[in-house]
Amino acid sequence: MTAGRIVLVLAVALAIRALYVLVVYLQFGADGLMGPDSHAFIQAAQYLADGGSYMQVAVASGPGIGLDLMPVPFLVMSWTLSAGMPPDPLGYVLLQIPVDAATCVIAGMLAERLRPGSFLIAGLIGAFNPTQIVVAGLFYTDTLFLFFVAAGLLTTVIWLERRDAKSTGAMGIAWGLALVTRPFVQHWLMLSPLILLLLALLRNRTAWLRSALGLAATLLLCVAIASPVMLRNQEAFGSARLHAQTGAHLLFWVAPLIREYETGIPIEQTETEWRAELLQTPAHRAAQNPFQESDAMTALAGEKLKELGIPAVLSAWVKGAVLNLASPASTISPLLSELPRQGFYDTPGDSLADKVWNFLFDNEGALYTALLLISAAPIPVALLLACLGFAVCLRGGRATAIPAVLLFLWAGYTLGLNGPVFSPKYRLPLEPVWVVMTAIGLMVCLEHYLPSFRWPGTNR
């Protein structure tokens, strides 16, 4: 890895993303940079740009920022907007371009630690990664979140090698910033100390105390970074939790999707039925703040999941993981999604398989379906290469097997937390792992079938 190769990866990634944003903006204007959640996001960011305080939580229709919106992305968004002016997403989307290019460099650095000489190929795979490109062209929090996740994974791998104060601090800051960008990582931060301690002991059994102290310091750093949000919520609502999304997510997304996969009942019908049922529950009637409302929703969702049964839940989780991995990024790109078509969740079907078939082959948009299938064609190849790369890392001794297991567990965490809810956007947090393992798998294939091939700057 040299400065020249870093510059090359940055230049390619910047050029591809800038070209994509330019094409989308010329074709659709500012609307092409906005996804389903972007309108609420940009209004919240504009509130901050107009002088509003993040510490003021919006209640009912009053002024303030949404309880579940984390500070880092919305402060950054607000810096790209002008006070008193109509909000324009272009500035923030342009800012995402170098951020995502830097993520490609981090992915290359991560690959280099697992297999020397793989920086360039991994960095370029990241540069051409459709999921990263498309999401970086939308007014979302995900690209910034991905940068911190990639930094967190890289610093964690370095910590497993060194376990010194510098790597501990870097790991804590990276994961702490990820936490206050999207709380997606909060359960990972609860599970990872035990996982990392076990992996660290596998690498060096004599340094268990230093490892434990380092992990404790990392958690303290994460808590310190998130403490302003926790203190705000404690003062306003009597709860130090970071967000109140859990109940709505389980009751109106996760459980209804499981029911739809199992029975074919549309998610919209289930949501209507269960929302009416929720209003009759004593817990919801007694709720006095968003956290209590979320708890009431969580309790009702738990009852519905029990009724659906463990086999249905497990089956839906597996189906969701498969669909998350198989969904091409083109499904959320306006270049494709604006074509005449029927959305997946609006497609009828008696089962998930029937729904997928109707979506692909009985869709009103023939051009959309054709482009969708073409864009999905490379995914199985990338998956096979990633599996090969993972297998190679496992066989490379502890130096590569231990970080490979860590990356595998992060990918599993991402798929597990998403459950039956799928979209290329939801898959984004595992993309650095996919890029790294695909790059290693591709290197192995080329070295085997083209033994005379030499990677630039290496002896391979």
Characterization of this structure:
The chain is an all-alpha fold. It folds into 2 domains: 3-239 and 377-449, no CATH class; 242-308, no CATH class. The protein is built from 22 helices and no strands. It has helices at 3-28, 38-49, 71-79, 90-114, 119-127, 130-136, 142-162, 165-179, 186-203, 208-237, 246-263, 267-279, 282-286, 290-308, 310-326, 334-337, 352-361, 366-376, 378-394, 398-418, 424-427, 431-449. The longest helix has 30 residues, at 208-237. The model has no long low-confidence stretch (mean pLDDT 90).
Tell me the Rg in angstroms.
23 Å
Q: What structural class is derived from the secondary structure elements?
A: mainly alpha
List segments where confidence is low: pLDDT < 50 over at least 5 consecutive residues.
none
Count of the domains? 2
Helix content: over 70%
For the termini, the CA-CA separation is 14 Å
Write the layout of secondary structure elements.
Blueprint: H1 3-28, H2 38-49, H3 71-79, H4 90-114, H5 119-127, H6 130-136, H7 142-162, H8 165-179, H9 186-203, H10 208-237, H11 246-263, H12 267-279, H13 282-286, H14 290-308, H15 310-326, H16 334-337, H17 352-361, H18 366-376, H19 378-394, H20 398-418, H21 424-427, H22 431-449
